[in-house]
UniProtKB/TrEMBL annotation:
Organism: Arabis alpina (Alpine rock-cress)
Listed name of the protein: Phorbol-ester/DAG-type domain-containing protein
Keywords annotated in UniProt: Metal-binding, Repeat, Zinc, Zinc-finger
One Gene Ontology molecular-function label: zinc ion binding
Domain Phorbol-ester/DAG-type stretches: 83-127, 138-182, 191-241, 250-305
Domain Zinc finger PHD-type: 93-139, 150-228, 404-460, 562-630
Length: 678
């Protein structure tokens, strides 16, 4: 495994699970997948965008020799070489600290005797001798032989490698003694900070004076009761630098001011209340975490690169991510081509907005993302259908037998479309214009437009299965309808534009909580739409009515409504389809079905392993029974299975929803045995 540093040179990385993935140099404060520790300041590291793996630079090449132990397969005490293990296969405890060894961080194990330790415990083992322990009057020595014992400090039984007082014949847990009873800290030189266990005192405020982390998140913290000064375990034992001399942060040397003080950070423009770095001659103050931000980055909210500046100077500007007003006198990111596009420093460098790769010395090129070549005014050649030309039809005439769009699988209705002059290939005009590559608000990289081959994908934005065109980035897939959403997003149901500012929210249309949502940023509005509801067609055609059905955005009615398809009660406050001429009210899912984005009649050979299926119109009489729920299939599009590995070979089998299909094939003992175990 290798990574490239900012100078382009290769650096060997030893902690990545997948040796064929390249990694890029990255400065970040995120939790390391190497040791499981989240630094409170930005640290050097390496990042794999393909599998979202981040390792600290200090963890990338750890030493192979750890600490001595007595191997059960060896006659003598010796240094053992510990190798990387993936604890997704081994669930055990660290033999040093007795903490759980989880599969999301790196661990080491001796395969000779089974000794296992965290990377952090291997890198920073407990001291072999403690001269001044906090719970005892004599010197303690770390035993190199495993034993069962009762800790003289906490009174609990333990096993493993204890500290022992040979004068008193007492033993102690490593975690009970490895932290000093008091420390002299550069942030608080007047008095020593004493070790505290349990809940912090009521008068303390309960947070670390430096990083504002909750003290209750740690088993131990350090506190001076005279000055009411507290530091969490990490800040007390690994103090940050008192001086910061980094030209990427400020032109002059910065000094840490470890006290409670209200300020506005000159780097990110956000307020702070403690321990800033200051430059007195410039009246400059910054959060202690605002370090190492790249100068030029690519975000998923803008087509161009954005650059960091120490002074925005743009009055009444709004952040392009959180949509909140920015302080023109502070720093941030802006586009040199589009000066009105501005971003808070921390918003632009959010993990879901940018990969934070430094682009300062990378020339920005205007990429050709046009999806077709223009033949004449009404004729094009699309890159996903190069064998024939497509001709534009703007007649707006509805023909029910026309078919559906090959990109989104939705019917054409009254829309303009491109029709192949030699075959049945057809595209909405809007789908045909989707670019070959584009940034997207739900991912930090660039998504590429492709045709789903052989099977189908599930859209990460709306959760619907589809098999038309797909925007993909590694394992992330988005259908073209969701990918067409851009900011600001305007919907007929609401007077204000909507934005993707942050994940999670309860949709105002269906009253369900979803992860990816669009929000109104107007004060006290609170209007939210998930991607599925935001893209419901304004009008649809269904066999239940001769007219087009229109989307209703809910009513404050007291009467009871009933869906004419499923004959169940509907909630008038949620969205539904209606025909005002015929007075019918229909659930949106009953009208569209869960397989609305699957192309009719196209075989799905690997929709699930061993299962061959296709989406079909539910237009037979009588309607088929669902093979799972045993109810009549009422949705307009259902799934037809023509082959599987089940003992029952009574084909075809029909499924009304993805839920029924998944229950049948993913949660049966037979299917799990034949598909996953084989």
């Amino acid at each position: 495994m290798y990574a490239r540093n900012p100078d382009g040179e290769k650096t060997i990385i030893s902690l990545h699970r997948f040796a064929d993935h390249p990694m890029t140099h990255l400065k970040d404060w995120r939790r390391g997948d190497c040791c499981g520790i989240k630094f409170e300041t930005i640290t050097d590291g390496y990042y794999c965008a393909k599998c979202k793996f981040f390792t600290h630079k200090t963890c990338s090449n750890p030493p192979s020799k750890m600490f001595p132990h007595l191997c059960s397969n060896a006659r003598y005490r010796e240094y053992m070489y510990l190798s990387y293990i993936d604890t997704r296969k081994y669930i055990t405890k660290c033999d040093v600290c007795k903490g759980k060894m989880t599969g999301d961080i790196q661990n080491y194990k001796c395969y000779k005797c089974g000794l296992g330790v965290h990377l952090e415990c291997a890198k920073y083992p407990p001291p072999e001798i403690i001269d001044v322990p906090r719970d005892h009057d004599h010197q303690l020595k770390l035993e190199m032989v495993e034993s069962c014992f009762t800790c003289a400090a906490c009174g609990k039984d333990g096993d493993g490698y204890p500290y022992k007082c040979h004068e008193c014949d007492l033993t102690f847990h490593v975690n009970c003694e490895k932290y000093p009873a008091e420390v002299i800290h550069p942030f608080h030189p007047l008095h020593p900070l004493k070790l505290f266990k349990g809940e912090p005192p009521d008068y303390s405020g309960g947070t670390c004076r430096y990083c504002e982390e909750k003290l209750s998140n740690y088993k131990f913290f350090y506190h001076c009761s005279t000055c009411n000064f507290s530091l969490d375990q990490n800040c007390a034992l690994n103090p940050p630098p008192q001086y910061l001399d980094d030209p990427n942060t400020h032109d002059h040397k910065l000094t840490l001011l470890p006290r409670l003080v209200s300020f506005t950070c000159n780097i990110c423009g956000l307020s702070g209340d403690r321990s800033p770095y200051v430059c007195l001659q410039c009246n400059f103050m910054a959060h202690n975490t605002c370090q190492g931000f790249p100068w030029v980055i690519k975000t998923n909210r803008h087509d161009h690169c954005v650059s960091r500046t120490s002074l925005l100077g743009v009055v009444n500007s709004v952040c392009g991510v959180c949509r909140k007003k920015m302080d023109w006198s502070c720093g941030g990111y802006y586009c040199k081509r589009c000066p009105e596009s501005t971003y808070h420093t921390k918003c632009a460098t959010r993990y879901d907005v940018s990969d934070k790769r430094e682009m300062k010395n990378v020339p920005e090129k205007d990429e050709d993302v046009k999806p077709f070549k223009v033949i004449d005014e009404n004729t094009i050649k699309h890159f996903l259908h190069e064998e024939h030309n497509l001709r534009l039809d703007k007649s707006g005439i509805f023909i029910e037998e026309r078919g559906s769009c090959k990109a989104c699988a939705y019917p054409i209705n009254h829309d303009s479309f491109y029709n192949c002059m030699s075959c049945d290939f057809i595209l909405h005009e809007s789908c045909a214009k989707m670019p070959t590559r584009k940034p997207y608000v739900l991912g930090s990289g660039t998504f590429s437009l492709k045709q789903v081959e052989g099977s189908c994908s599930r859209c990460m934005a709306c959760g619907i299965y589809y098999n038309g065109f797909s925007y993909t980035q590694y394992e992330s897939n988005i259908d073209v309808r969701c990918a067409s959403i851009s900011e600001p997003f305007v919907h007929q149901s609401h007077p204000h534009p909507l934005f993707y500012t942050a994940p999670k929210g309860v949709c105002s249309a269906c009253n369900k909580e979803e992860y990816f949502v669009l929000k109104c940023v107007e004060d006290n509005c609170g209007y939210i739409l998930d991607f599925k509801c935001a893209l419901l067609p304004y009008e649809v055609k269904h066999k239940v009515d001769d007219h087009f059905l229109s989307l209703s955005y809910g009513e404050n009615a007291r009467g009871k409504y009933q869906c004419d398809i499923c004959e169940k009660e509907t909630d008038p406050k949620t969205w539904f389809y209606t025909c005002k001429d015929c007075k019918v009210n229909l659930h949106t899912d009953c009208v569209l079905g869960e397989f609305r984005a699957l192309e009719i009649g196209r075989e799905l050979t690997t929709f699930r392993h061993g299962v061959t299926s296709m989406a079909v119109h539910n237009n037979t009489m009588p309607q088929p029974l669902c093979n799972q729920c045993k109810s009549l299939c009422i949705f307009p599009i259902i799934l037809k299975v023509t082959q599987d590995r089940m003992p029952d070979k009574n084909y075809p089998k029909y499924y009304c929803s993805s839920k029924c299909f998944d229950l049948k094939y993913l949660w049966t003992t037979y299917y799990l045995r034949t598909v996953f175990i084989e």
